[in-house]
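Purpose: get a first structural picture of the assembly so the mutagenesis plan has something to point at.
Setup: two entries, given in the order below. No constraints added.
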Amino acid sequence: DIQMTQSPASLSASVGDRVTIACRASQSVGYYISWYQQKPGKAPKLLIYDVFNLQGGVPSRFRGSGSGTDFSLTISNLQPEDFATYYCQQSTSTPYTFGQGSKVEIK
Amino acid sequence: QITLKESGPTLVKPTQTLTLTCSFSGFSFSSSGVGVGWIRQPPGKALEWLALIYWDDDKRYSPSLKNRLTITKDTSKNQVVLTMSNMDPVDTGTYYCAHRLGYCTTNSCFASWFDPWGQGILVTVSS
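Result (structure tokens, whole complex):
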């Protein structure tokens, strides 16, 4: 299985800040990385697929980057609705694996 | 608009078999490339992919759970059913079904991600 490791596990930030979450794969996944946002008690929501492609309706302040084994999700101009937990997922092969999550909290 | 909804028991006893149904609208297994996956999440923990079924009845399972899982589809009813045998308290969590997105060639599909997801169903395993 491809292991996905996210960092940090949690971070505190203020509205308007820029935050970056890292995701590392145990082997190359090419460009097949997706990012999800999950709010408490809700289902995950797809934000980004294929490293940097925004899913429809996702604000442009979300940006994905990386390739191979190292990826990141950057949120610019953090908004109140962005405080949530974020997961990366390798989309390249089964079993599809997720990172352990990165919680973005209000400072 | 694509929607999915999970249904099934919210409480099962250890050793019992769990049967969950995903009912969906807005897409059909009659179209090539279509797939539905199941993902679960223990309370306070990360997401874990379980299984995926494609329009052509091709199936993929998590290797760690493969012996306990069965995924089937009913194209006429727009439903996918997941069964998990020999349930244990560690299987407690929220179970989600989700619409698969990704790529397919004429021979096979590859690279899958999921959107949208159902609301999830919390399943507790306890005697």
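Strands of chain A lie at 4-7, 10-13, 19-25, 33-38, 45-49, 53-54, 62-67, 70-75, 85-90, 102-106.
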